[in-house]
Amino acid sequence: MIGGSFTFCDRAEDTVRWHKLCMDRYNSNMFNEKRLKSSLPVEALGEPLYFYKTVASTNDRAQALAQEGAVHGTLVVADEQTAGRGRFRRSWSTPPRSALALSLILRPEDITQVALARMNMLGALAVVESLGALGLEARIKWPNDVIISGGKVAGVLTEGSWMGEDLEYAVLGIGVNVSPKSVPDRRDVAYPAACVEGGLEGKVSRIRLLVDILERIGSWLNMLDSKQIYSAFEGVLAFRGQPVKISGSDMELTGVLQGLTPNCRLRIALAAGEVILLGGEDMQIRPVDMDRDWATLN
Questions:
Q1: How far apart are CA 254 and CA 68, in angstroms?
Q2: CA 44, CA 70: separation in Å to the nearest integer?
Q3: Are the CB atoms for 49 and 37 separated by under 8 Å?
Q4: Which tens digit of pLDDT belongs to each residue from 84-127?
Q5: What is the Cα 102 distance to its own chain's centre?
Q6: What is the pLDDT of residues 232-249, one digit of tens each?
Q7: Which H or E element spans position 275?
Q8: Most CB atoms closer than 10 Å: which of 204, 231, 270, 279?
Q9: CA–CA separation, 153 vs 104, rounded Å?
Q10: Residues of the chain scoring pLDDT < 70
């Protein structure tokens, strides 16, 4: 019975489809290697798959595999991550049966400096688009976080290895808070956290979300130099037109966020009218008024 009515299947293929529909609806939290592998690869990504019930860090495992010669598109996924990290080596918790923790090995050829600068935001853009397809409005909090109206719902960490001036490989790590169980205590995080199911007020299939994110990464990967992806970044940039506070290791200032440069630096308008460009590994951005309802989406 689906939606209050009985469904009868006259053909074998209808029975198979009906069974799959039931599985997807009533077992949306099933998350295992067999089910995930059946949906991969997508856009030449996700094969081979390394699936772990528990791992310290998917990025660390992916880097080890890359150093051993793992090919472009290799995917590392864990149901639980015990020592995940984000920018500034902040802890990223992934409790079991509650979130997405994945790392993708990429070996792009002849990558330009502009494309390399944009790679860090690529994972965030894919998550924003996937959440949008579910009906959940999201934005990129520069440079690599994803926020919804309740707070931060996903984080991205890109790490790479160089041979001279050539990028040997990049590991694109993504963590997504899916169920309420994945949301850390407010006292344990620098920025308010949220989850996908809380934003949607309904259950979400982690496998479907993961596969959709991969598909969107793959569709943009060969367009990192394009105007289209730059426009896509700007279109989902959080706090545009709002007063923001920028802080770094040796500076702090306030201005209005105007947008991004093509190489993903921030364009900030100061009170005196001057527009400056900012970017760097140690910089953070947040709205001036964190109590506003809710100062996350523009």
A1: 45
A2: 14
A3: yes
A4: 675 556 667 789 999 999 999 999 888 877 887 888 899 999 99
A5: 9
A6: 999 999 999 999 999 887
A7: strand 275-278
A8: 204
A9: 19
A10: 1-29, 84, 86-91, 187-188, 190, 290-298
Q: Which residues pair with 159 in a beta bridge?
A: 171
| Pairing verdict, β 75-85 and 99-106 | antiparallel
User: In the prediction, which pLDDT does 8 show?
Assistant: 46
Cis status of the peptide bond prior to 294, with omega within 30 of 0? yes
CA angle 225, 231, 232 (to 5 degrees): 95
Residue 293 belongs to some domain of the structure:
no
Residue 269 falls within a domain, yes or no? yes
- The CATH number of the domain where 281 resides is what? 2.30.30.100
Rounded Cα distance, 14 and 27, in Å: 19
Cis peptide before 184 (omega within 30 of 0): no
| Total domains present in the chain | 2
The amino acid at 212: D
